[in-house]
Amino acid sequence: MAPLVDEPMADTRDMLMAHSALRREFRLLPDLVRSVAPGDSRRTRVVGAHAELMCRILRTHHKGEDRVLWPKLVERAGVDAEFIMPMMEQQHAVDVRYTEVVGLLAQWRSTGQGGEDLAHALERLLTALLRHLTLKEKEVLPLAAQYITAAEWRLVSQLGMRNTPRNDMPLIFGMAMYEGDPEVVKSVLATFPLPVQMIVPVVARRRYASYARQVHGTTWPPRVGA
Fold this sequence. Notes:
Number of strands: 0
Structural class: mainly alpha
CATH architecture of the domain at 13-165: Up-down Bundle
Radius of gyration: 18 Å
Low-confidence stretches: none
Number of helices: 8
CATH superfamily of the domain at 13-165: nmb1532 protein domain like
Order of helices and strands: HHHHHHHH
Shape: globular
Oligomer: single chain
CATH topology of the domain at 13-165: Four Helix Bundle (Hemerythrin (Met), subunit A)
């Protein structure tokens, strides 16, 4: 099927920005868990809450794709969408590792025990996640730019964030902005009212800087998203 031409198509660069945040935070998590001294309940709470937030972000990241992206690509892209089944298999592998992490995380947060097991599980999740994100960037995003409209692409994000607490939104956006292309940030904000465009970047940067200082011990955690 030919690409749609009668309306604006998806600008998929915002997905790269989200992927950078996922790569960075999940790469740093195993060592964060290992750095918590036995019996340090305060630090366990901080790192545990961060791990729980990242797992929640990862889970919501897939919701809009399942509801909109995959069905639309299968419908419109024809033989070009042959990668969909391998992608779904990879997503299943991520989900399996995710479930493993969530179970161990609950135990660690409540007892402080099993930190090394959790760190290993996070490393296994990271391996599956990196493979999945790389394939998505190589195979999915170019086709989405051809076959998914800008309005549909916004819906993918909206569905993914629908159950995200409003108070978490500035932090999550600041997390993505940290390694984001300023032009992409500007493009994303352009879909919001002018007051939001002006306020959100300032608030989001401050929220993530404060959060990173608490979690990572610095306002400038290593930029490992590339």
